[in-house]
Design a protein that fits this description.
- With 437 residues, the protein is α/β, with parallel strands linked by helices.
- The chain has two domains: 15-291, Metallo-dependent phosphatases (Purple Acid Phosphatase, chain A, domain 2, 4-Layer Sandwich), CATH 3.60.21; 301-435, 5'-nucleotidase,  domain 2 (Alpha-Beta Complex), CATH 3.90.780.
- Helix content is 32%, strand content 25%.
- It contains 15 helices and 20 strands.
- It has helices spanning 2-13, 45-56, 75-79, 83-89, 108-117, 160-163, 166-169, 177-188, 203-212, 282-299, 312-327, 350-356, 375-378, 395-399, 421-432, and strands at residues 20-28, 62-66, 96-97, 127-128, 140-145, 148-156, 173-174, 194-200, 218-222, 232-234, 237-240, 248-257, 262-272, 302-306, 331-332, 346-349, 362-369, 388-394, 416-420, 434-435.
- The strands form five sheets. The chain has a six-stranded mixed sheet with strand order 5-6-8-9-11-10, covered by helices on one side.
- A hairpin with a 4-residue loop joins strand 12 (248-257) and strand 13 (262-272).
- It is globular.
- The structure holds zinc ion (ZN).
- Zinc ion binds next to loops.
- Zinc ion binds at residues 69, 100-102, 200, 223.
Amino acid sequence: MFRRTISLALLACAPLAAEIRSLTILHTNDVHARLLPLENRNGGFAYLAAVIRRERAGCTDCILLNAGDLVQGTPVSTIFHGLPVYQIANLFGYSAATLGNHEFDYGWPQVRTFMDTANYPVVTANLANGAGRLFTAKPYVILTVNQLRVAVIGAMTEDLNILSTSKLLEDVHTLPLVETVRKYAAEVRGQADLIVLLAHITGPEEQRVLETMPEIPVAVTGHIHSGLTEAMSRNGRVLVRVKGYGEELGRLELKVDTEKKAPVSWTWKRIPVDSTRVEPAADVAREVQRWEDEVAARVDRPLAVSKRRFAKAEVKRLIEQALCQETGANFAFMNLGGVRDIVPQGQLLERNIWNIMPFDNRVVVGTFKGRDLPAVVTGGRKVEPDREYTLAVSDFTAANQGSAENLRTTGLKFPNDVGLMRDLLMDWFRKKKTIGD
Ligand SMILES: [Zn+2]
């Protein structure tokens, strides 16, 4: 009896032995202001909220993360500069989030307003202003759940400068992704049982994280809108990402070794948000309705009729046609990444154009010698090298003309601003009356 008491006392004084504790990470990315379900009836904030709450009910080891690009994509977001989206998303119960490139679409001061509005911490470790100060209040946050200390380090793609414009970013810029995250991982390691990277990053950057960063055992990402079908993993490390537009909620269940500070096992699943099978969360539905009513009168006016569905690559060509015809330019170019929605078959509303072109991009025109026209613009059509041609593009393409998805050239000047692209597109559709003849 005596001996037993002693051994128990010794045990209590001994350093904490390694423990296996469970952690469940629910996650979203690239929700893009899709307050209402999509054409395929997936998504919608009230339905996403309902699925989140169902998955969280009775869960004692759950956290909920968002990997950026909450705003931009619908009239509510464009007209009110994203703020209602942040307000409604407060009902989701996020534990933490990172910023996406599209958070900056309304200028960097508005991102400060988003961060003030969010009822959860927003962390991005590699985003700084001109004075070198961190843009978010903190690079990481330590969440405690199920007696686990989970350090969530946020990160932004190094491509931010070409995904946004200097007019919107001013002196806000990214710091090197791997080096910066590595620095904070070393700093936080002693205070945490697990480090999770929450990152708005591209495919090659995801690969770099997975292949070169053993200090990151778990990564939750976004930016690419197609979800992974299976989690990516390397040497026991795991990276997950779901579909954008609120079509899916991710659920990553981990067993974490608190001594190794790494998962010993995990399972991941993508949970569909099917609005035909879920009861919407009433409080969220009320807010969505309120904001949709605000914009309905402005955007639900009939515009034209489409005889068939146009996929995004076809919509790009429609836009280029519209740019040529509306501006009288010889050539036009639209970057595919800037086409944010399809054209459905049937009656089109002005809302469809808002969804295709949510950005307040302007149309700009320049005059160039045939020999200076980029190959992506002429597309094999014959031009005379010394003749002058006009070219219409968006101001985004003009500002980022060097990037692979734009003109792949530099030094082209587009001095003639002919107005908002969305207005131009609406005029063109309205005049056409029927699309797809
Ligand atoms: Zn993005």
